[in-house]
Amino acid sequence: MLKESLLKRRVYLAFGFIALALGIIGIPMPVLPTTPFLLLSAWCFARSSERWHQWLLANETFGPIIASWEKNRCISIRTKIMAISSMVLVGGSSVVFAIQDDTYRFIALGLMSVGAIVVLRLKTCEKKTVMSANEEPNTESKSANYGDNY
User: Fold this and answer.
1) What separation in angstroms does the CA of 38 have from each of 22, 42, 59, 104, 118?
2) What angle do CA 17, 138, 75 make, to 5 degrees?
3) Cα-flanking dihedrals φ and ψ of residue 97, to 5°?
4) How far apart are CA 65 and CA 83, in angstroms?
5) Is residue 96 in a domain?
């Protein structure tokens, strides 16, 4: 039983790092949406490593987004606008100017569309529920209902 628990934690940790890497790659490459991958990495780290989970929460840029998600299951309209805008501007520029092959253009447009749909489907926070970086997320029911919106 102990080995199974340790194995489960290691699998969550590995998936957390994979999701974090994809989220970081998504910053300059808007074909990959950053926000959902960061939320997924926080979800995995919450189940595997308190140290890495706290590291994500302490990040000035992404910490408030993750904390707001953990407490209220929502992201701010500003986060949605930034995510969609970067995908359209940078990703659209790549499709128009950098990608020559029509097959790759359609693949890039498809990936950006999926990313936009994922971001738009996430619940939008009301102004009063957006957390600051210094607030603590609600961790009482960390394991219950954690992945309902995925």
Assistant:
1) 8, 6, 11, 26, 13
2) 65
3) -105, -30
4) 12
5) yes
Domain of residue 70 covers 2-129
Number of domains the chain contains: 1
pLDDT at 149 over 50: no
- Does residue 65 sit within a domain? yes
pTM, to two decimals: 0.68
b/e per residue 60-89 (b: at least 16 CB within 10 A): eebbbbbbbbbbbbbbbeebbeebbebbee
Residue 149 lies in a domain: no
pLDDT tens sequence across 27-82:
887 677 788 899 999 999 999 999 999 999 999 988 998 998 899 999 889 989 98
Residue 144 covered by a domain: no
